[in-house]
Structures
1.
Amino acid sequence: MSDCLFCKIVSGEVPADKVHEDDRVIAFRDINPQAPTHVLVIPRDHIMSADAVTAEQMSIWSHLLEVAQQIARAEEIAAWGYRMVTNVGRDGGQTVDHLHLHLLGGRALAWPPG
Ligand code: 5GP
Ligand code: ZN
């Protein structure tokens, strides 16, 4: 989508600190990190949110999770634990309408979320 910030990061129009790229997903550091490691893993295809993933697109989830797992190991946060989260819509706190998995770690994270 031409006016989507994360599509612009996928295309390279907007720069990002990328930590992973393959044919289906990219991952980059959040511009406003909430933990020592805060990476966003996103599909190259524009999908609005977790709620908009169709049955045909469901396999993207396993790939997002696999990439997040690999990054957690590379960032050496896996042994201590980390969080994967995706916000959906207004009440879920989603601010960018392009599916993204947050990978957060490097400190003890509070629960429940606010
Ligand atoms: P959401 O609130 O939709 O779950 O998460 C959107 C995330 O995108 C936020 O954590 C925000 O800091 C991050 N973000 C917003 N704009 C940019 C940007 O231009 N570059 C990067 N790297 N992250 C961004
Ligand atoms: Zn997009």
2.
Amino acid sequence: MRPQVLFPLFTDVASLKGIGARYEKLIKKLCGEKVVNLLWHLPYSIIDRSYCPKIKQAQEGRIATLKVRITEHQPPKTRKQPYKVYAEDDSGEMVLNFFKVYKDSIEKNLPTGQERVISGKVERFNGLLQMTHPDYIVKPEEAEKIIGKEAVYPLTAGVSNKMLHKLITQALQRVQDYPEWLDTHFKQKENFMPFRKALEAAHNPQTIADTEPTSLAHRRLAYDELLANQLALALVRNKVKKQAGRAFSGDGRYRKQVLEELPFELTGAQQRVLGEIFADQKAPFRMLRLLQGDVGSGKTIVALLSMLNIVECGAQAAIMAPTEILAKQHYETIEPLCAKIGVKAALLTGRVKGRARQQLLAALEKGEIDILIGTHALFVDDVKFKDLGFVVVDEQHRFGVQQRLSLSGKGRDADVLVMTATPIPRTLVLTAYGDMEYSKIDEVPAGRKPVDTRVLPLSKLTDVVAGLKRKLEEGCRAYWVCPLVEESEKIDLAAAEERYETLKKIFGDKVGLVHGKMKESEKDAVMERFKRGELTLLVATTVIEVGVNVPEATIMIVEHAERFGLAQLHQLRGRIKRGFQASNCILMYGFPLSETSRARLDIMRRTEDGFEIAEKDLELRGGGEILGTRQSGFSLFKVADMTVHKDLLYTANKDAKMIVETDSQLKTPRGEALRILLYLFEQDDAVRTYLAG
Ligand code: ADP
Ligand code: MG
């Protein structure tokens, strides 16, 4: 259960004073639902209100705080005019302008003949000093409250800095002095202040440097967040490791035969990775390993060989793909090889129905099927294995930590291998997959030709089409990718359809169209025709991103490539990288082209190394977003920033490992404090699932 000291922070923001229904909605959208979310909403700049000139000396354009006496009110004659209030000090006169205000409230706030301290941006108009809608109007005795430095927060339409400030101040008041969860020695070395002090400092910056992620206060908070993340993962990992697993060590008979059937030798990287996997399978613990390898690095054969090790031991294995197309593709690679060596492989997707499905399920339960290939349809309730020993998840970043674990629940302590085709920078591997062991295929099979990548403006479209025409006449096959921007799927679809129509006029009925709004079966049918060569040009929205294998396709044209992320472009280009023929990728961009987009396209032109691209992507975008959307499970940290806090991540990783080794149930005084930390950063699952009591 969440510690009581945190209750005030985990209430709805509606519980804050002065918020009201309208603000409640806006604040929830801006910061989050709970009071605690406000704590992580940090200022990015400051306004200095310590400039207190006389009216006559005030420099225009600056934020000034002035002590004035109100002399006269001049209500507007028409609605468009401002309500003017005149004021003076012993140096001269000025005017305050207000639009759309109530006479009553303004007379109350600025009574004629009285002194007020006002603060805001000053301008001069015909020599007369003006201030439009002062940020602050206070009585002289309250002046101290506003003079000085004011934190400036990221805002949203309808929420003023002043309002947000008030709410955040209340949130800060609900923070208590929690027991210290940092290692004393480390805290001293880093010169960190206590958590509460750090929060207060981050929200009350005195200089611009105080608002930067490199400031001591930010670093302390970033470390706390990273430690919570790493500790949660370390707890999962520790638990999994301790769970009894089965020791699989086959005699190699199937693997040997498959290797003989293959028209190629395994690369050094494939062999090394297989060694790591076999070692896990042999150990009497649950296996949870991530296998990373770029598109075309040969993960499928690695998956097959590791499944065969299990089959050699008489148990079953399953491989789960994110889409039907991919499942089918795995089936088409795996089944023929299995058939040759007398191993039974079957395909189960949502489309296998009725009698066929019943028969398949029965065979599975009897153990007549050795390797089952499918989508998440594999894991619905009525699918029963006789003895599932090993699950391969071809992930594409769709599953969270919890889901990954529940998958293996289908079998007695089944081992799990997660494969991902997107190269992930080391920092993100630690933050997102820190609960798993990790293998990397960092070598592509020899003899692959590099892709000739060109970057061209959209104004060259006619030339590109002419070049494409020649290539298609020579017998090539090509993808034409149209961007899909989430906000307006309809418009994008319309653009793709329009492009399809124009290309059809030029290339005739050899052009096909696939997009995300089509049914799986329709998509499959079009893909199938492209595969067979009945279609030679495939116009597509990004649906083809997910690993479709058409080795004959060697050309890819990406329209508005500047709208794609680097990871996406890399995945797309991977589609034409599989053949041994030369291939061409043309990235077409429109204007305006931002610096970042230009840099991205340039990287694409320079390198094909997925790991290098991933690191660059991280640099350009700074984290979380890197692999696409937030839903991908790589959501941004609230405070930590992977472009500046890498060092802290590595330390947090070591720290977390050490904690779990010495205090796996978090029972020591530091352990108790760490529980608070975990809850504070909403790692409730980790505490509930992996800690007793
Ligand atoms: P990935 O799933 O990693 O994107 P695949 O497993 O689909 O890659 O392999 C891509 C292609 O490379 C396939 O046609 C496969 O047969 C081939 N391949 C795999 N390993 C090797 C190798 N060691 N040498 C040559 N070709 C290979
Ligand atoms: Mg693959």
